[in-house]
Write a structure and sequence with these properties.
1037 residues, alpha/beta, seven-stranded parallel β-sheet, 48% helix
C-alpha cells in the first residue's frame, strides 16, 4: 500500500504533505495505521485517510476536485515564504530589532541594497540614530543572506563600548572588541573555519604605522601585519565594514584614510557614518565618497559630470511629484534625460519612455512610483543618505534654555581676578603657544572656584580634564604655571571660605529644589567638563540630601549599566556626568539638563544636549539650565557666541563642522595677554560676525543640496508601505508559526502566556529533544547569536515575539524576531519535513467585515503567486490577485493582500464550497486571475531585467575604470623609479609590480564574477502558492 520514504498527503487536508517513516504499519481496531513524518511532527494515521503524492501539489487541480485545505495551511505557507524568501517588497529588518520604528531610519537600508558601489555615506544630523541605521543594515543583510556573517565596526576609542552595548541590546549581535593582533588572528582563523565574526576595533588600534609597506625596511608589529594582510588579500574579508565618526578619515594623506581604504577594498559592503553636511563643493566630502567609489569621485571632472546629470533628473523627479505638471510634460522631461555616463541607466530609461508613450493613468500612486523610478537613477542619491532633524515629523522636541546669572561675592571675585591675572602674566612673560592649556586653566577657574583653589593648592600638576580623545594633548600644565597658581592657593582659610560661601553651588541647590518641587517625577542630569568638579559636586549634593550617581571617563564600571541603574533610580536622582562620560549614551528618559559649566566650544554643548534631545524623547519639551557667574570670561562666551548664533535654542545642524575653525580663533583671542579688554571684545565680535556669515553660507548650501542629492521621499513612501501589518511578519505571525511547529514537533514543549505585564509575552520551555536539536542547529548556524535558550530552555525563557517595545523596562524578556535562531530553526524543520514539495493549498472561509478594510462585504476569489529571479541581486516577490466572485471585477492588489493576510490572522475555520460553485471558481481563476498574474509577472520581469543589465554595466564600468587608473598609476611609478638608475629603487619596482599584479588579478576575478552574473539572469517558473475563496460578511455576521 505505502512504502517507507513515499510521499503522501491527507485526503481531508491535501496541503499537508508528509513522508512514510520506516516504522512498520500497525493494526488497530481493524484498520492499518502508518507513521508519517509531517511538517508538524510524526503522527500515526489510518491508511484510508492517506493518498499518494504523484506530483507536486496543484492548488487549481485541488480546487476543481473539491479538495480544500484549512486556512491555517495557507497562512503557514505564506509565513514560511516570507521567513525564508528574499522578497523585494519586504524590509526584513523591520520589527526584527529592539528599536522603535522611525520610517526615515530605513532609508539607508534600501539605499545600500540598491547602491551600485555597495557603499553608503550616512550623513544624518546628530541625534537621529546613525548607529541604529547601521544596525538595521546589518540585520537586513543577514536576513537576506544567511552567509553574511563577517562584520567589522571601526570607531573612535571612546565609542567601542557603546557600540558593543548597542549591537547586543538592540540588534542581538554579540560583538567582540579587539585590537590589531586579535583582528589579525580572527581573519586568519575565519579563512580556515568560515564561521564568521562580529568585531569592533578602535581606529587607533588598527591604524597602520608609517612604513608598513616599505619594501626595504617594513615596519613591524601587529598593526603593520594587519595592513599587509588586508593589502595582499585576493578576496573579500568582510561582509560589512562600518566606519563611525568618518570625518576622521577625510584627510587622504593620513593613515586613518589609508586603513579605511584597505578595509573597504576587501569588504562586500561598506558604510560610513558622519554628521558631515551635504556640501558637494567641499573636498572633505569628496574624500569620504572616494572611499565608497574611488573611480567616480577620484576625478573632479567626473564629479562635475555627476552634478550635471543630476540636475535634469531632479527636474523630472519634481515634475513626477507635482500634480500640476501634466503627464505629457513629464514624458518630455523623461525623454530629455541623458543616459548616465557613470551610472548606467539606458535600459531603465528605455522602459520608462515606452510606458509614458503608451500612457500611464495619472493617479497619486502612479506618480509616486514614477518618482521612485527616476530617483533611483541618481548615483549621488544612492551614495549619500542625508536626513535633517527639521525634516523628521516625529522629532519636534522644543528646547527651553534658561540662563541663571548672579554676581560673585567679594571673596570669590577677588580670587577670580587674582588667578586670571596670574594666568595672563604667565602667558605674557613666557610667550607660550599652549593656548589649549591656558584656555582649560581659565575654564577650570570658571567651573568651580573652590575646586580650582584646592586643585592648584595641592600642586598636583594635572587638570584631570574629562575630555579624553585620541587626538587631545596631554592634560599637564606647564610646571612653572602650576607653581605660580599654587602660590595664591595655599591658605586653608580662604579655601574653607570659598567652599562655605559657594554662590554657584547655592544657585544649583536652589534650582534643584525648585525643579524637584515643580517636577516631582523627574531625574536630573548635571554636566561638567572636569572630574575634580564632579567629585566636589558629588560630596556637596550628597551632604544636601540628594541621591547622586557619577559617570565620567574615570569611572571603571560599565557605562551602560550605570545608565540602566539611573533609568531605574527613583525620581529626584541626579546624574553627574561629563562629555566623555555621556558620549554616545541614550538618556532620553530625562528631560532636564543643567550645564554647571559651559565649554567654549558649542559642539561640546550640542553633544551634551544630544543625550536627551534625540529620537525616543517622550516629552514635547526639554529644559536646559545654564549657570553663569557675572563678570567672567564664561559670560562673554555665552553672550557673544551662544546667544548671537542661536546656539542651545536650536540644533547646530550643518553649522557644527564649521564651528571648529571659529572656536580656535576664539580660544586664541580669549587667552591672548597682549589684548586689552576693549581690544579683546572687538576681536571677539569680529570672529562672531565671521561665524554668522559662515552659518548663512552653510544654510544656503543645504538649500542647494536637494538639487544635487535625491530627496528620498519616494524611499520613505516605500518604507511606510512596508510597515503596514499585512506587508510584514507581525508578532502574531511569528508566534503562531514558531509555536505551531515546535509544539507539534516536540512533545513536552510549552508556550504559556505571562500574566501581570502590559505587553504580550510568553514563558517558553523546550522539551529535551527540542533542546538537543536546537543546540545542534545553533552550533552549526548561529553560534554567535546571544540567546538565553542556550542555557535556560529547560527551565523557561521569558520572551516576546518581534521586537521588545521597551528593552530597558523589560530587560528580562528576550525578543524573538524572524532573524532569531529559534525562528530559523523552525524554518529549517519545515523545509526538511516538506521534503522539497511545498504545500499549495486551496481554501475557503468566511470572516466578518472590518471597518478599515478597503473591500466591501462580498465574496472574493484570491490567488497568490511567487515569482523568483536570480541575478546580481536574487529576489522573490509574492503577487496577490483577486476578483469579485459576483461581478468578475478585478481588485486592487494591495487591497487583496491586506484583506487576505488580516483575515487569515483571525484564525477562520474552513467553509466547504457548494459542489456547483467549484467549477465556477476554477473558471474565474483561469479566465481572470491567471492572465492578470501573467501580465503583471511579465512587467515585473522586464523591469528587473532592465535594472539587472544597467547594474551590471555600471559595475563593469566602475571596475574597469578602477583597474585602468591603478595600472596607470603603478606603471608611472615604475617608470620614474627605473629612470633614476638607482639599484635600491629598482628593487622597489619589483614590489610595486607584484602588488599591481595581485590587484589586477583581484579585479579580473571580480569582472569574471560580474560577467557570470550577467549571463546568469534567470526567471523561475511562477509558483501558485495558494487560492482562497473569502466571504467577507457584514460586520458581526
Amino acid at each position: 500500500m505505502f512504502e517507507a520514504g513515499e510521499r503522501v498527503r491527507l485526503k481531508n487536508d491535501p496541503a499537508v504533505v508528509g513522508v512514510v517513516t520506516d516504522r512498520p504499519p500497525e493494526e488497530r481496531a481493524g484498520r492499518t495505521f502508518f507513521q508519517i513524518e509531517l511538517p508538524t511532527g510524526r503522527r500515526s494515521l489510518p491508511a484510508n485517510q492517506l493518498e499518494h503524492v504523484l506530483a507536486a501539489p496543484d492548488a487549481l487541480v485541488d480546487l476543481r476536485n473539491g479538495k480544500l485545505s484549512a486556512p491555517t495551511d495557507l497562512r503557514r505557507a505564506l509565513t514560511h515564504l516570507r521567513m525564508t524568501g528574499r522578497l523585494a517588497d519586504m524590509i526584513y529588518s523591520m520589527g526584527a530589532t529592539n528599536t522603535e520604528f522611525h520610517a526615515y531610519q530605513f532609508k539607508p537600508v534600501l539605499k545600500l541594497l540598491n547602491a551600485p558601489s555597495r557603499g553608503l555615506l550616512i550623513a544624518d544630523e546628530v541625534g537621529l540614530g546613525k548607529t541604529i541605521e547601521a544596525g538595521l543594515i546589518w540585520t537586513e543583510l543577514v536576513a537576506r543572506n544567511h552567509d553574511c556573517r563577517r562584520l567589522l565596526v571601526v570607531c573612535p576609542k571612546p565609542l567601542v563600548e557603546k557600540w558593543r552595548a548597542e549591537l547586543r541590546n538592540k540588534f542581538n549581535v554579540d560583538a567582540r572588541i579587539c585590537g590589531a593582533a586579535e583582528l589579525l588572528d580572527t581573519l586568519r582563523d575565519d579563512q580556515e573555519r568560515r564561521e564568521g565574526f562580529q568585531v569592533i576595533a578602535s581606529l587607533s588600534a588598527i591604524r597602520p604605522p608609517r612604513g608598513w609597506d616599505d619594501p626595504d625596511e617594513p615596519a613591524s608589529g601587529a598593526r603593520a601585519d594587519l595592513a599587509r594582510l588586508l593589502n595582499d588579500s585576493a578576496q573579500d574579508l568582510f561582509d560589512l565594514a562600518i566606519f563611525d565618526e568618518a570625518h576622521h578619515l577625510r584627510n587622504a594623506e593620513t593613515m586613518n584614510h589609508k586603513v579605511a581604504k584597505l578595509v573597504t577594498d576587501v569588504s562586500d559592503y561598506s558604510l560610513f557614518l558622519s554628521a558631515t553636511p551635504i556640501n558637494l563643493r567641499a573636498n572633505d566630502l569628496r574624500a569620504l565618497l572616494k572611499l565608497i567609489d574611488p573611480d567616480t569621485f577620484e576625478r573632479e571632472y567626473l564629479f562635475d559630470i555627476l552634478q550635471e546629470e543630476n540636475v535634469p533628473l531632479v527636474r523630472a523627479w519634481e515634475a513626477a511629484r507635482d500634480t500640476r505638471v501634466p503627464m505629457h510634460e513629464l514624458a518630455e522631461l523623461v525623454g530629455d534625460l541623458p543616459e548616465g555616463r557613470v551610472l548606467k541607466t539606458g535600459e531603465r530609461l528605455k522602459r520608462l519612455r515606452e510606458e509614458l508613450e503608451k500612457g500611464i493613468v495619472d493617479t497619486p500612486a502612479n506618480r509616486v512610483k514614477l518618482a521612485a523610478r527616476i530617483e533611483e537613477m541618481s548615483l549621488l542619491g544612492s551614495t549619500i543618505n542625508r536626513t535633517r532633524r527639521r525634516d523628521v515629523a516625529e522629532f519636534k522636541v522644543e528646547r527651553r534654555p534658561q540662563t541663571v546669572k548672579w554676581p560673585m561675592n567679594e571673596a570669590e571675585d577677588a580670587f577670580y581676578q587674582r588667578a586670571t591675572q596670574r594666568i595672563e602674566a604667565y602667558a605674557f612673560a613666557n610667550d607660550i603657544n599652549e593656548r589649549f592649556l591656558l584656555a582649560q586653566t581659565q575654564r577650570l577657574l570658571a567651573s568651580s572656584l573652590a575646586t580650582a583653589y584646592r586643585h592648584w593648592g595641592e600642586r598636583s600638576g594635572y587638570l584631570t580634564l574629562d575630555e579624553e580623545d585620541d587626538a587631545s594633548p596631554p592634560g599637564a600644565l606647564p610646571g612653572p604655571l602650576i607653581s605660580a597658581l599654587g602660590e595664591i592657593c595655599d591658605d586653608p582659610a580662604v579655601l574653607a571660605g570659598l567652599e562655605a560661601a559657594d554662590t554657584k553651588l547655592a544657585k544649583l541647590l536652589d534650582w534643584l529644589r525648585q525643579l524637584r518641587e515643580r517636577d516631582p517625577d523627574q531625574k536630573f542630569i548635571v554636566f561638567s567638563s572636569f572630574r575634580r568638579t564632579i567629585s566636589y559636586l558629588a560630596a556637596k549634593l550628597q551632604a544636601a540630601g540628594f541621591a547622586i550617581m557619577e559617570l565620567h571617563g574615570g569611572v571603571k564600571a560599565d557605562r551602560q549599566e550605570i545608565v540602566s541603574r539611573f533609568a531605574d533610580a527613583p525620581a529626584g536622582t541626579i546624574l553627574l556626568t561629563s562629555e566623555v562620560g555621556g558620549e554616545g549614551l541614550d538618556l532620553q528618559f530625562c528631560r532636564i539638563l543643567i550645564n554647571w559649566d559651559l565649554p567654549w566650544n558649542p559642539m561640546k554643548v550640542e553633544q551634551r544636549i544630544g543625550r536627551i534631545d534625540r529620537i525616543g524623547q517622550r516629552s514635547p519639551s526639554i529644559d536646559i539650565i545654564n549657570l553663569i557667574a557675572a563678570e567672567t570670561i564664561e559670560e562673554q562666551v555665552y553672550d557673544r557666541l551662544y546667544l548671537r548664533l542661536g546656539i542651545i535654542q536650536e540644533t547646530l545642524g550643518d553649522f557644527e563642522p564649521i564651528l571648529g575653525e571659529i572656536i580656535r580663533d576664539i580660544e586664541f583671542i580669549l587667552t591672548n595677554p597682549e589684548l586689552s579688554p576693549e581690544a579683546r571684545a572687538r576681536e571677539f565680535d569680529r570672529s562672531i560676525q565671521a561665524a554668522e556669515q559662515r552659518k548663512m553660507q552653510a544654510e544656503e548650501l543645504e538649500r542647494e543640496a536637494p538639487g544635487l542629492v535625491a530627496h528620498g521621499d519616494s524611499i520613505l513612501q516605500k518604507v511606510k508601505e512596508a510597515y503596514a501589518p499585512h506587508k510584514r511578519l507581525t508578532e502574531s505571525d511569528l508566534r503562531d508559526y514558531i509555536a505551531g511547529i515546535l509544539v507539534n514537533t516536540f512533545e513536552g514543549t510549552r508556550f504559556e502566556p505571562i500574566n501581570g505585564i502590559d505587553i504580550e509575552a510568553y514563558d517558553i520551555r523546550l522539551s529535551p529533544r527540542a533542546q538537543a536539536e536546537f543546540g545542534h542547529f545553533r552550533n552549526l548556524n548561529a553560534r554567535r547569536y546571544p540567546t538565553r535558550f542556550s542555557r535556560d530552555a529547560a527551565s523557561g525563557v521569558k520572551a516576546v515575539f518581534g521586537s521588545n517595545p521597551d528593552p530597558i523596562r523589560h530587560r528580562n524578556l528576550e525578543a524573538i524576531p524572524m532573524t532569531h535562531p529559534l525562528a530559523r530553526f523552525c524554518a529549517q524543520l519545515l523545509d526538511n519535513r516538506q521534503v522539497g514539495v511545498a504545500p499549495r493549498p486551496a481554501t475557503a472561509y468566511r470572516v466578518p467585515h472590518q471597518p478599515h478594510w478597503p473591500l466591501a462585504p462580498g465574496r472574493y476569489v484570491v490567488a497568490v503567486e511567487r515569482w523568483s529571479i536570480d541575478g546580481l541581486l536574487p529576489i522573490d516577490r509574492l503577487s496577490f490577485a483577486g476578483v469579485d466572485f459576483a461581478t468578475g471585477a478585478s481588485l486592487d492588489e494591495d487591497a487583496v493582500e491586506q484583506v487576505l493576510m488580516e483575515s487569515l490572522a483571525s484564525a477562520p475555520q474552513l467553509q466547504h464550497l457548494e459542489p456547483a460553485d467549484l467549477p465556477h471558481v476554477a473558471d474565474v481563476m483561469e479566465s481572470h486571475l491567471m492572465p492578470a498574474l501573467k501580465e503583471r509577472r511579465t512587467d515585473f520581469e522586464g523591469a528587473e531585467a532592465a535594472r539587472h543589465y544597467d547594474d551590471v554595466a555600471t559595475q563593469r564600468a566602475l571596475i574597469t575604470q578602477h583597474k585602468e587608473r591603478e595600472k596607470s598609476r603603478a606603471e608611472t611609478q615604475i617608470r620614474e623609479l627605473r629612470a633614476s638608475g638607482s639599484a635600491k629603487k629598482m628593487n622597489i619596482t619589483y614590489a610595486i609590480q607584484g602588488k599591481l599584479n595581485a590587484f589586477l588579478a583581484r579585479m579580473d576575478l571580480k569582472l569574471e564574477q560580474i560577467n557570470r552574473k550577467e549571463n546568469d539572469l534567470s526567471f523561475d517558473e511562477p509558483m501558485l502558492v495558494g487560492i482562497a475563496v473569502v466571504e467577507v460578511a457584514e460586520g458581526g455576521a
